Amino acid sequence: MTRGRTRGARRTASRAVAVGAGGLLLAVGLPATAAVAAPGGAGCDNRNNNTYDKLLECMTLEGVVEHMEAFQKIADNSTDPVYPGTRAAGTDGYADSVEYVADLLEDAGYQVTRTPVEITFNFPAELRQLTPVAADYETGVFTGSGSGTVEGNVIPVDINLEGDRASTSGCEAADFAALDFSGDSDIALVQRGTCFFGTKAYYAEEAGAEAVVIFNQGNSPDREGLVVADATSVDEPIPGAPGPVTHGIPVVGASFADGVALAQEGSTAYVDVLPAETRTDYNVIAELPGKNPGNVVMAGAHLDSVIEGPGINDNGSGSAALLETALLMGNTKPENTLRFAWWAGEEQGLLGSAAYVEGLSQDERDRIALYMNYDMVGSPNYVFMVYDADESTYPAPVPVPEGSEALEDLYEGYYTLIGEPYDDAEYSGRSDYEAFILNGIPSGGLFTGAEVIKTEEQAAIWGGTAGEQFDPCYHEACDTIENYDAHALEVNGDLIAFAMLTFAYSTESVNGVPGKPVPGRPMTLPEPAGPEGTFPEGGGGAAHHHDA
Q1: Tens-digit pLDDT profile for the chain (548 aa)?
Q2: Which candidate, 176, 249, 182, places its Cα nearest to that of 212?
Q3: Catalytic residue among 346, 408, 426, 508
Q4: 222, 239, 273: which is the final residue of a domain?
Q5: Same domain assignment for residues 230 and 352
């Protein structure tokens, strides 16, 4: 496929960055050189972009946005009978996204494989209040939900609708002990907060509920709307449910306002969830052999959207930046083997990445030197964030593999070099790097924010609008081609390319495997300036998929 386009001149200057065979050379930042007009698209696509100057010259905002526009068009053209207009797992929109990415990579000379992933496809659900008012409510099916039709009493479970609305609703079996779920059609109404969604559904089912409605917490503007997420994970230890669970009863979501309405005395409701289907989607894995086949540098981004919309920031931004990087590096002859991945079913609970890592032999896992994750890198009300591998801001709730700190240092050194402030995001494992870190593979990544509200302090540092979400269209139909910030996307696109080229030649700073300097003019990263410290709690707004 010919990718004929004229790439515009770069808005940012070429980066002066120094990396040696032994890893990062930390020094005082050198001034950036003057911007150089990028060559035409054909020149960039066909030449060996094996130096920082050449690769960053060709890594343009226009090139990344072209792929995002293609994802938008794929969603627009999707005539999926159940969820048109999206690129969600199990839909035609996702299948067409796979073909778009895979075709470009094959034409660029990569060894491309499509690895199958079984996903659970949920049909639209119904949630209707019958008394004391009659109303239809927007809803959706939680991953791990059972199916069925339930019409009966709504029973609130330890909810808090006033004041700070702090909630541990449904997080313990004791929350249900004094409630009567002995009827044939009882609907447990639980509030978001504190524990995993799966824990709430698990205890509701154990108590005898025939359906569960989980409504949003309502304690902040980002927790007002409809909540639909993954209910397969539970807080441990729960006897008999140590890991991922599925539920035999319907589990659906609601907004805070609709939860308040359903909590009225004498409330009855109707919940209907059709049986789910098991469908097969595909990860796209593209490999470029290096001189060292036993040292694999890997980066990934999830390709699927939520059912509500086309998912252009979440995660067309990460997918597009990674794709453009791969295409521009297709003619390089790297020291280490490069592997790029576009994951299926992330929005359903990290399914594609988990299936991929589980399917590798131990020897194949040991070959992976590092993994870099890019999930939402162009949020319209952005904050630049780096996964906090050194735990300088947040204690990590998951093991941090040795060597991950070197990835954080690289990202932070780059931001420091170009004068961009950054902050830490909790090293939580709540995106596609989870399976890698659980297998001891050094990992890191970038994030620009989702549903968390930007503070006045953050707006003073990064610009944007205080009091609004980092991504006002997070998991909404408005996550379209209009939903990104050009500056954030351009900076992070450059950084994604920079990181891949750096580790293509040496991972010694990460895993001790000797390499070679990146060809061309040597460049230097300064000592990282340090995070701004604007997230005193809450994990830096890190994307989450399992917790309440």
Answers
A1: 333 333 333 223 333 334 443 444 433 333 333 333 344 456 898 899 999 999 999 999 999 999 999 999 999 999 999 999 999 999 999 999 999 999 999 999 999 999 999 999 999 999 999 999 999 999 999 989 999 999 999 999 999 999 999 999 999 999 999 999 999 999 999 999 999 999 999 999 999 999 999 999 999 888 999 999 889 889 877 877 766 789 999 999 999 999 999 999 999 999 999 999 999 999 999 999 999 999 999 999 999 999 999 999 999 999 999 999 999 999 999 999 999 999 999 998 899 999 999 999 999 999 999 999 999 999 999 999 999 999 999 999 999 999 999 999 999 999 999 999 999 999 999 999 999 999 999 999 999 999 999 999 999 999 999 999 999 999 999 999 999 999 999 999 999 999 999 999 999 999 999 999 999 998 789 999 999 999 876 555 555 444 56
A2: 249
A3: 346
A4: 273
A5: no
Which structural domain range is residue 371 located in? 19-120+279-541
* Alpha-carbon separation of residue 198 from 96, 253, 309, 361 (angstroms): 32, 12, 25, 30
Question: How does 503-522 read in b/e, with b if 16+ C-beta sit within 10 Å?
Answer: bbbbbbbbbeeebebbbeee
Tokens of 16: 């002066």
The structure tokens listed for 180 are 């009567």
Same domain, 316 and 359: yes
| Assigned token pair, 363 | 């020897």
- Count: domains in the chain: 2
Nearest 5°: phi and psi at 419?
A: 80, 25
Is 346 one of the catalytic residues?
A: yes
Q: How far apart are CA 523 and CA 74, in angstroms?
A: 40
